[in-house]
Amino acid sequence: MTRLLQPELLDSLPPESPSAQRSRRDLARINRIMGNHAWFARTLPPLVRGGEAALELGSGDGALARRLREVGLAVDALDRVPPPSGWPAVARWHQADLRDFENWADYPVVLANLVLHHLADAELAELGAWLDRHARVLVFNETLRRERCLFVWRFAAPLGGAGPVTRHDGRVSIEAGFREDELPVALGLPPARWEWSVRETFLGAYRLVAIRRP
């Protein structure tokens, strides 16, 4: 199953449109069912050293960054959209495309949830070059690209009440996702400098934890 990038409908919708709002509610429910935010809250704290700042790529509504701050992590956000209402004053919100971001040196810990599948291989390689230069810990949760995931999504999405935008974008996300060691390889992380582990979950998550070797 070859990786395929296609436009997602949510990216082209005005944020205030009913379809976009419904899709964001669907995404929040999907994150709960898959346990994505809970996985970050379990995985990150033991990996972050005292005084280290973390950056979430593609923060969206800021829900994940807020949750990680609640467990004691200094997490800032990067997204193309402005900060959501009530964003904490102590946290930085970088309004920029990650392709144009220049402050990588400030963040030894970088995380992303369901974001990197939007990037082509050349863009992943460019991102990886910055991360290899500056980061110490990478924690990424992505879509798992397996035929069984497409099969399950085809039936589970409508049964679970997902809207048309989510049903379309879910399929597109799976087809653009990753498997095995594809993501660290696409990022160009040199095995001599990075140790990584990849886990593929039953519910269709692809989870990468990469730590720079001493």
Features:
214 residues, alpha/beta, Rossmann fold, seven-stranded mixed β-sheet, 36% helix, 18% strand
Largest beta-sheet details: 7 strands, mixed
Order of helices and strands: HHEHEEEHEHHHEE
The second-level CATH architecture is 3-Layer(aba) Sandwich
CATH superfamily grouping: Vaccinia Virus protein VP39
- Structural class assignment: alpha/beta
* DSSP summary, beta strand count: 7
- The CATH topology annotation reads as Rossmann fold
Distance between the termini: 36 Å
β-strand percent reads 15-25%
pLDDT under 50 segments (min length 5)? Answer: none
Return Rg in Å: 17 Å
**In CATH's first tier, which class applies?**
Alpha Beta
Amount of helix: 25-40%
Strand arrangement in the largest pleated sheet: 3-2-1-4-5-7-6
Return the domain count: 1
Q: What is the molecular shape?
A: globular
Q: Helical region count? A: 7
Overall mean pLDDT stands at 96
